[in-house]
Amino acid sequence: MLYTTIQQAAPALRDAMTAARHILVTSHINPDGDAVGSSIGLTRILRAMGCRVTMVLPTELPSLAVVLPDAPEVGVYSQGASLPADVDLVVLVDTGSISRIEPIFSAERAYLAQRPLLVIDHHATNSGEGFLNLVMTEAAATCEILGLLAQAWNQAIDAETATALLMGLVTDTQSFQTSHTSPRTLRVAADLLALGGRLNEVMRSMMYGKPFAHAKALGMAIERMHDEGDIIWTEFTQAMQQGTGADDEAGDEITAYLSRVATAKAYVLFKERRDGTVKISMRSQPGIDVGSVAHSLGGGGHREAAGATLQLGLDEARDLVLSTLRVALA
Ligand code: 5GP
Ligand code: MN
């Protein structure tokens, strides 16, 4: 069943979750603020409803998660570790497809196949793989959906839950700057702030909590920016990462900076991963769809923010992505 409104979904989702004995909440690889905020926020809401919940994320949490006291409780999956056997409901948040929870997806195929899946998400590329899916593509963040869901359930939200949900709202809207920031997004955020959510701490950890190495990496990436008219792109190579000591998260900084230049329609960061693959992050001007380009390359995301992982070297990835993008923009 695929729901697209809170009103229709709220009773069915509550029935499924309160009937479960043990719920596993998870989200995508390289979890961002919305993945972490929605995992922790939903877990806290469900526990307040009396549910037993375990959180496991596929890979390490982003550094901004330090402002959430529950972050240390989130299990980070390690190969060979087993997931709780008595789980009888898997809830996937902020993720378009269960295949995006690698390495869990490959290692735990049988485990996942044996358990019902419930999905709460806002990605346009979500294919509705669960037996119950709430996919609201107009929502700015999965955390926006959860704020509305708690209201529909008449479930009180405490200050820590509000802070977790604010993290998703702030990160996915880049501090309420993106075009999908709606009156409803701001109303949900205002409600969460009124409930004691620590908005300013979330903002500070996102905007002003960067390591020095990120600034150095950003400088190098800006130096290498290419202006091709409709497309502006740059790269973040392994050599740059090793030379500066910047980690993967510096890529978010670079992507955000690229899209500040007004003259282009689309922006691409090519990030060389340690395993030799290339992760691309694309952004676009309002109304320009890079989500379908990412989808055609095996990735996904939103119209104006999307990505993919390519099993190609940096040069090949650049040729493929830029030529695909030029066709799409023409
Ligand atoms: P970012 O560029 O910030 O990593 O991701 C932007 C958006 O694209 C996010 O919504 C993210 O979930 C999605 N995205 C990024 N990389 C991938 C990918 O490899 N596969 C899919 N399906 N979506 C991705
Ligand atoms: Mn999201």
From TrEMBL:
All copies of domain DHHA1, residue ranges: 244-321
Origin: domain of life: Bacteria
Domain DDH, residue spans: 22-168
Positions of transmembrane segments: none
GO molecular function list: nucleic acid binding
PANTHER family in UniProt: BIFUNCTIONAL OLIGORIBONUCLEASE AND PAP PHOSPHATASE NRNA (PTHR47618:SF1)
The name this protein goes by in its record: Phosphoesterase
